[in-house]
Amino acid sequence: MKLATWNVNSLSVRIGHVIDWAREHQPDVLCLQETKQEDSKFPYDDLKDIGYEAIHSGQKTYNGVAILSKHPMTNIQRNMPDFEDSHQRVIAADIQGIRVICAYIPNGQAVDSDKYIYKLNWLAAFNDWIKTQLALHPKLVLLGDYNIAPEDRDCHDPAAWAGQVLVSPRERQAFQDLLSLGLHDSFRLFEQPEKSYSWWDYRMLGFRRNFGLRIDHILVSEALKSGCKSAHIDRAPRKLERPSDHTPVVLELEVS
DNA sequence: ATGGCTTATTGTATAAGA
């Protein structure tokens, strides 16, 4: 089973890239973030034409998450049950016996800003919810834009970024707290190239200079760890005309 | 150098992203 996550930074702009990429790579499951559109505008038919069912939790202008799947989706859930949030950031479904959770974790803007506090509160609620989800679904995979670079090697210039949002100690602790629930960063289960990133700033030739961060992740539960066969970041879509600033992260999983 | 791009909005500037 091939799973992928991709922050598309507006699905209406990126639908061509998404369709091309899905046709070429044939993921079983593709999680999208920042669709930035209402459900009524979501391209269900275009995706069905290439073999994907889709579920979406969207809103105008901001946020929005979707799961595209070749297989039936059941037990669909939108948003965290016990966290009041006007932002559409979470969608989940059971697929082939696996709990698949797609999340767009808040950006946080700047350390100690209101949005940073919202991010930390959001992550605390998320941790609680994932804990209960893990108890219900031992086979769980959590894909998304975490807006956290977990370690210095996930940042192109740790000295310049030290203490900033996306790498700050409190955010990194929140990421570790997720791992402490019994989750594993699937990308790091395998040998990876140095300076592997999933996001590059549009400005200052960020991609060409590889000034990036690894902030998009696929975490797997203990029960799925031994089934992980490979993981990689596909930089190709970042080279296209009018790309998203993020690129897909991919996991190959053997399911029993 | 606190910017540099990119997106969406009922816009002709602002907010947000990371």
Would you tell me the overall average pLDDT? 97
* Low-pLDDT stretches: none
* Rg calc: 17 Å
Helix content: 10-25%
What overall form do the CA principal axes indicate? globular
For the largest beta sheet, what order do the strands appear in spatially? Answer: 3-4-2-1-14-13
From the N-terminal CA to the C-terminal CA, the straight-line distance is: 10 Å
Given helix and strand content, the structural type is alpha+beta
Query: Total helix count?
Result: 6
* Helix/strand order, N-terminal first: EHEHEEEEEHEHHEEEEHEE
Task: Please give the largest β-sheet.
Answer: 6 strands, mixed
For the secondary structure, the number of strands is 14
Beta-strand content bin: 25-35%
List the main descriptive attributes of the protein structure presented here.
DNA-binding, 6 helices, 256 residues, six-stranded mixed sheet
What does this structure look like?
The protein is an alpha+beta fold and 256 residues long. The protein contains six helices and 14 strands. The protein has helices at 11-25, 44-49, 114-136, 158-161, 169-179, 222-225; strands at residues 2-7, 29-33, 53-57, 65-69, 74-78, 90-95, 98-104, 140-145, 183-185, 199-200, 212-213, 216-221, 228-233, 249-253. The chain has a six-stranded mixed β-sheet with strand order 3-4-2-1-14-13. A six-stranded mixed β-sheet has the order 5-6-7-8-12-9. The chain has a two-stranded antiparallel sheet with strand order 10-11. α3 (114-136) links the parallel β7 and β8 (140-145). α3 packs parallel to α5 (169-179). The radius of gyration is 17 Å and the shape is globular. The relative contact order is 0.16. The chain binds one DNA strand of 18 nucleotides through residues 9-10, 12-13, 34, 36, 60-62, 107-109, 115, 147, 164-166, 199, 201-206, 213, 215, 242, 244-245.
